[in-house]
Amino acid sequence: MGLSNLSRSLILEYVFAFVLRVWLYNSEFKTTIIGRVEVSTPVNSWKRVTEGVVLQKDGVNPYSGDMFHESPVGLAIYSQLIEYASPYLPGIFILLDLITGHLLYLTAVEYMKHLMRRQEEDKAEFSEDVKDLLLSQKDVERQPLYVVAAYLFNPYILFNTVAQTTTVFSNICLAASFLFMAKGNRWGSCVTISFATLQSLYPIVLIVPAAICVGYHTLPIKKPQKLTKARAIAPVKLDIYQKMLPKSLRSVNSTHWITSMATTIGLFFVMLTSLLFLSCHLSGGWEFLHSVYGFMLLVPDLRPNIGLFWYFFTEMFEHFRLLYLWAFQMNALVLYLLPLSLRTRRDPILLAASLTGITAMFKSYPSLGDVGFYLSLLPMWAHIFPCKKFFLSFFSLNLLVLFNKEKNSVADLQQGFIVLAAFIITSVLGPTVWHLWIYARSANANFYFGVGLAFAIAQIFLITDILLSYTKREFILRHGTSTLLHGKHGKLVLA
Amino acid sequence: MIVWAVFTLILSSVSALGQSGLYGDEFHEELVLKQLPSGHVYSYFQFTTLWENGGDQPNHHCHLFPQSLSEVLHLYNVDEMHLSLTGGLWRHENWGYPVVSAPPGAELWAWFKEGTHDVDKKWTLLSNALSGLFCASLNFINPQQSPSPKYSFAPLGAYGSASQNRSLLRYSTLPREIVCTENLTPFKKLLPCDSKKGLSSLLNAGNIHNANYHSLGIHVRPQCKDENCHETVLELKQTVSLVYDLIILGQESRDWSFRKLFGVGLAGPCPLAKSSKIYVDCSTNATTFDYNLSPDPTEFINSNRGGYNTVFAVYDIKKTHIINMFSVSATHKGPRVQSIISPPVIHATRYIVGYGQEHGGIVTKIHNNHWKEIDITLFENIPWFLPTYYHTLKITANGGKQVLKPYAKHYLPGRDRSRPYTLEFLVTLPPRSVTEIYLEFDYSFLKWQEYPPDANHGFYVGAAAITTLLPHTKNYTGVPIDGSTFSSSINASRDTYPVTLHTEILLVTLPTPDFSMPYNVICLACTVVALAFGPLHNHTTKRLQMLDPSEETKGVIANLRQRLNSFLTQSTKAKEQSSPAPSEVIKSPQKEEAACGSKVTSRKKDRAAKSS
Fold first, then answer.
1. Are strands B421-429 and B41-51 parallel, antiparallel or unpaired?
2. What part of A 321-350 touches B (C-beta under 8 Å)?
3. Which of B357, B544, B546 has the CB atom closest to A471's CB atom?
4. Do B548 and A491 touch (CB under 8 A)?
5. Best residue in B392, B509, B592, B598 to probe A by mutation, most A CBs within 10 Å?
6. Where do transmembrane segments lie in this chain (chain A) (predicted)?
7. ipTM given for this complex
8. pTM for this one?
9. Mean pLDDT of A98-117
10. Which of A359, A463, B190, B558 could form a disulfide with B66 if both were Cys (CB 3.0 to 4.6 A apart)?
């Protein structure tokens, strides 16, 4: 009965999401949404895709100009779409979005199963008073639904679909790579991540969590021990999820880790290189490298967006430009990769989600589609912080239900209210000050940049809070909820 | 002695060459005056220098040809060069066609000699040299912003082969260029008589820049020496086009004279000129206007060209005996009549559509008033800061009812900061139609140092050029391609009459950043990055610990002292090898947090040691 209930609500979500998208496509808001700088950036706007396709059709190399920044493989796909399926494009985009939602659902189901199994295995180590904190069967069933809802009813994702940005394509690649990661599928995750990287470069960081996931899944299965009393006491020793305990196994299997990760990363690079060669073959030269990746890395177009790059590099002094370009690109790409990978290696899916979030914040041409994607992943960790309703409320536009403190939550989303308020306010204020600056000409660039800064800060608080909450929960599960230290009340801090 | 002999020999040979060149060289000065249907007076000066041996040897004696220009042309392998410096807009709809067309601002296009390898470099050097020669900002022309049009701007000179290697052509405009006295003075210095004698003495800076429209032109091309065209001469045409609004000039009178237009009278012809003539177009006299010319012209010439008859009153200054000052004046009779202006066959306007500083569109409207179809070539050169969407190009006629398909099209997408968007196409305009060409663009956001002073004034977009062949000569005044002087246009009937039209230049206001804020923006953006870096750094490098909040609030020095204490006590304890610490509140973890637990334990040990 419960299952049918679940599937019923899942189907209801899809139907409702479909209707909502069809309505929005046919509404007058469509043209407004398409033109928004927050949604359509130079690297993902459909208008530029059309430009590239038409240029190619008319015999002009689209990479010779500065209007088209999609990969040649993407260009081949889009030109087929525009050529043969032009009237059905909205339908295709809606379908792709629904598929992305379902992929995320499958990812969440897989991940919740994994979390549950790991909890069962680790239970022996847990403190006695943390029963309330544990993942319940209800969470396992509900959280995937939350993920789907957070994706399909996320206004950012809605805008993204209606504007027909190519972020829809990169999101489906990312969602598939998350699913393959959760399943520990080496080939699948390598293919999807290399496609996502080919399109927008920044997902290259996901290969590290993917390699870790695959590494866990391919750990050699321990020989079943003889049926002894110990076997009876220690439960589910054979389960592959037991291999998620790195400390016990890492020392034993260091060669496995090295070979497994090297194989995954090597496979990824082989695939990426072959895709690049395919691109070179399709576009007839390497010119696209500069047009696609050079454009993303050197940031020549300073059109405003929700990121930090545009105004920073508008106002930058010429002799510092290169230095700060390096600094900002490293910040988005490699700076947090190693430390976070080491820190959250026990939970590579969380690592992947936080890396996706960090790149969505700090990449050179971020759009709301990128932000919406990682936000909709977060309900997978809804059990670790008190405001489960936070996501649901925000993304289903049900703003009245803000917080619902649940008794069993100890880890706290410290900035929850600030983040929520900042998201709402910046989402409203951004277009307003944009109008004042660009159309009414009564404000200037600083206003819009200020709103962008607030939006970025909100995202930063969200991601750092989730990482901290996760660590706190792990700590409390093992040390108990008591905050007594030496007879006095202690405080849990990073030190 | 031998040296002296050689020197004399060289000197004599050089002078001999000069003498031989002298006989072939010609200089003509002409002034055309025309009362336009709108009541404006169009005066067109043309100074034509023909250099017989021009283009043969680099160090040839120039005689009448300006040496400074000849050196530049030889040095940079220039076959043909057209430069115009213009203030104001020629209004085709009201004024008809000028003798030479020029867009507002500066325009320079040049064909380089066949076999020139580094055209871009030569082009840069040429524009820099001309910049110095004419005191104009032509040095701002750079090769990246100078396209090589594929169909427009065909060479006008006489060449041995008909092949047109378009890579030898460069075209550039500076729509913001302001033309003034500083350009006129060097322009006059190129003339054989400077402004001392001849028609050029009428070019009085104060009066010229008073005009509604003023345009200086330098046109160099090889021209046939004779009708057989076995040999070529180098032709230099220096033109000055002026359009005066008589109402503005004062006295609210329609009458005009040299004194009123130029401020001075004419003292006489340039002695070096082979011909020195003034043409007054009297075709509209007695129809649209009714005026008396004084003094009486030397002769009246009837020019029957392409079915249209034009009457010129000609004053041959060479033959006129000038006692004091010579001045042509027109005195109107009868009441002022507002005549119907019949627009020329092809004319165009261009403007920007859209509001706000986000998305916009450029509309070019071309009117075809002829009863037959006319083929045109349109050349659009849109600067890089207006990224243009080629797929939005719409060519429609008659209010969008008829979609026109160009039969040749060339598009070169622009590149940020290095190449403009160039669009060129050939299209047939339907008879009696208005064709609308629409292109969408985005407004760019530039770096703060890329904005010019007074950034909110806006950015200029150069004019579009429309090239076409007119079927008849209504409103047409151009000199035929095989002729040099204006007199060659008399009775010069041809099959078609080539004309180039330039549209308006556009002013686009790009969105501006706050120019006073670089430090603030850099600081704020870096702060946000640091806001992410700090917590993530903490999260990845530190471990969770249960700490006493009272201790946590201690200052830096207290913390340091405590650490030192703990270090000391630890070392003493290690010596003593004391027993383990008392009971632990926190259960020691076995896995990941083991290290963390032990740290807590060690701290507690410290505290225990301290308290004891």
1. unpaired
2. 324, 328, 331, 335-336, 339-340, 342-343, 346
3. B544
4. yes
5. B592
6. 88-108, 156-180, 201-219, 257-280, 319-338, 350-368, 380-404, 416-440, 446-468
7. 0.88
8. 0.84
9. 93
10. B190
